[in-house]
Amino acid sequence: MVPFNPNSKSFRLQNLQKDHRPLKIVRASHQYMYDNTNSEYIDCVNFVSHVGHCHPSVVRAAYLTNNLEAITPGWDIDWGEPTYPQQLRHTLPEYLDTFLFCNSGSEAVDLSLQLSQLYTGGTEAVVTDNAFHGSIDSVHHLSPKVFKTNNITKADWVHIIPMPDLYRGEHRREDPAAIDKYLAEAREVVQGARQAGKVACFISEPMLIIPGCIMPPSTWLQEVYK
């Protein structure tokens, strides 16, 4: 047993659960966050900052971008050699050769929805239960976590398949037929969506982070797409 040191980080982290005063974070660096008393915390909550807070490479890239002498006109600008899209293309199949850069995940999902509906002529969308895909109105409709939490009526054009949670879900890893059962339920939802109209898209996280870092079975996404 190691005695608690009131000045230690572990003691302060434990006390966060008992202290009703709001935590005031004023700055962050790499994996650490600092409050207004300069106490240091390990950030185990913010899943957005994959490379850490204020990463020097990210800060420098933002600095250089913001210092470009450019305006936002209604015509094209020669930005030089687009090295990043070229590098990105080399990591993907050859038929993925066009990139549309967005300023947020919400905007990316909204754009995906628009493109899929324009391309297919469909209106119906299939999503995974308990998911959250963004903060703008169109994407809220695709986010069961939002309309379930806020008691909002689900849009008719949104169809929800069960989350393939083998740990806490209805069908668990102890059941050898669990994956087949989840796929059967997904198939039934998709068939229902087709009866309502033409399916435009299926949107899901490849790893279900929002519901609790759940790894889908290795074959689940491939079979759902089929």
UniProtKB/TrEMBL annotation:
Keywords: Lyase, Pyridoxal phosphate
Chain ranges passing through the membrane: none
InterPro entries documented for this protein: Aminotrans_3, PyrdxlP-dep_Trfase, PyrdxlP-dep_Trfase_major, PyrdxlP-dep_Trfase_small
GO CC term, one of those recorded: mitochondrion
An example molecular function term from Gene Ontology annotations: pyridoxal phosphate binding
Family that this chain belongs to: Belongs to the class-III pyridoxal-phosphate-dependent aminotransferase family.
Protein name: 5-phosphohydroxy-L-lysine phospho-lyase
